[in-house]
Amino acid sequence: SRRERRLPDYRSAPSHSLATNFIFECGIKLGLQPATVATAAIFYHKFFKEADKNDYDCYVICTACLCAAGKSRDEPVRLRDAVNVAHNSINRGAGPLELGDEYWSWRGAVAQAELLVLRLLGFNLDTPSPHRYLLHYLRTLQEWFPPSQWRSAPIARTAMAFLQDFHHSPSILEYRAPHVAVACLTLALHVLGVSVPLASTLDDDAAWYSVFTKDLQKEKNWEIMEKIMQVYSREPEPI
Questions:
Q1: Could you tell me which InterPro entries the record lists for this protein (predicted)?
Q2: Lower CB count within 10 Å: N or C terminus of the chain?
Q3: What pLDDT sits at residue 176?
Q4: If phi over 0 gives left and psi between -120 and 50 gives alpha, with beta otherwise, what is residue 123?
């Protein structure tokens, strides 16, 4: 199908170049919440901050990160489902794996890799979620806008898209979750050409977000926004 042809060919891609695309595609197919898929990407970035990418099968580690993220977010992923979705994404058009050697080999590799990921994370699955902060900030910000203006501009959808896409970059590990959430929101407002009501009356035009986080400097906010925009210059573009 036309849609099938547009999907990445993971088998011919250079190692790890499509890793986060693979995580997002498999996460969507598994029906996971966006925050759970994003957590899997965080685990992947954390794992390979410490480990050598040449030492591990990229897609096995990605699948293991999805399983670990499911545990972290109380959205358990059945190992059999994870293996079948991963195998099907790599081998386009293939049906579910038979309960034979290939299936058990995949299953064993993913189970072992998940233990490896958990060990490298120090068995600490508590990852602060920028999604939670962004949802809270959006609810507050909505109250500042006239209802008609809020409805006419897709601020929430745009900010959430920026947040999800930023998880393709290991740079997300460098910043605190509340700061990432504010940067995604600020970038969405800039892109949509929307001004926060009454913000122009404040001494500093960035002061509107000091209600959300006191310690985010304007320069740091711009730095994070630039890192988010760099995601869109990568090849291939995020899923």
A1: Cyclin-like_dom, Cyclin-like_sf, Cyclin-Q_first_cyclin_box, Cyclin-Q_second_cyclin_box, Cyclin/Ssn8, Cyclin_N
A2: N
A3: 95
A4: left
How many Cα neighbours within 13 Å face the side chain of 123?
1
pLDDT for res 234: 73
- Cα 238 to chain centroid distance, Å, stands at 10
Domain boundary assignment for the chain: 2-120, 130-233
Does 2-120 match 130-233 in CATH topology? yes
Q: Which amino acid is at 229?
A: M
Q: State the CATH class of domain 130-233.
A: mainly alpha
Residues 27-64: pLDDT tens digits?
A: 999 999 999 999 999 999 999 998 888 889 899 999 99
Sites in the chain below the pLDDT cut of 50: 1-5
User: What interhelical angle do 218-230 and 155-166 show, nearest 10?
Assistant: 70
Among the CATH numbers 3.40.50.150, 1.10.10.10, 3.30.360.10, 1.10.472.10, which is that of 2-120? 1.10.472.10
Distance CA 171, CA 227 (A): 7
Q: Rounded to two decimals, what is the model's pTM? A: 0.88
